[in-house]
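User: My collaborator sent over this chain with a note saying "see what the structure looks like." That's all I know about it. Can you take a look?
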Amino acid sequence: MAIITLNNNSLSSVTELPIGISGQNYPAFQACITTNQSIPNTTYTKVQFQTEVFDTDNTYDAVTNHRFTPGVAGKYLITASVGIDTMADTNYSIVTVYKNGSATGYSDSKGRRSVNHASTASTLGSLISFIDTANATDYYEVFVFQSSGVNKNTSVSYYGFFGAYRIGD
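Assistant: Without extra context I'll predict from the sequence alone. Here is the result:
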């Protein structure tokens, strides 16, 4: 047992967490892109994160809907990242998280670029993280938009991911 000292007062044990903190960060999941997906030009397209890294409560559907449904009400940290391959300097991409079919938050790639050293192409990547309050039946999906003028693929090498975990009530 650790003894914590704060302002010369000792606290030898904690019997309960403050209200609103669960002490358990689940349900939780993370899924990643393991196969390229074609993204049409200037069209928001749902991203298919095909492989679950982990899924504590079977809350992510990696096969049919590619969505997260918490199953437990609470506050969640939601995060997603998607890269688009072979994008020119003048192009951009936008990653948007939808909650129950409506855009909740987004991030764009303007000014953020990862060079693919095997060629002269660049991967544009966007990352979004935010906290949201969900009920048990809400669902979250990730969509991506790209402005290249032609279809482009999601990047497997950029490590696109979608994840969430419960942080409290």
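A starting point for your reply to your collaborator: The CA atoms of residues 65 and 155 lie 20 Å apart.
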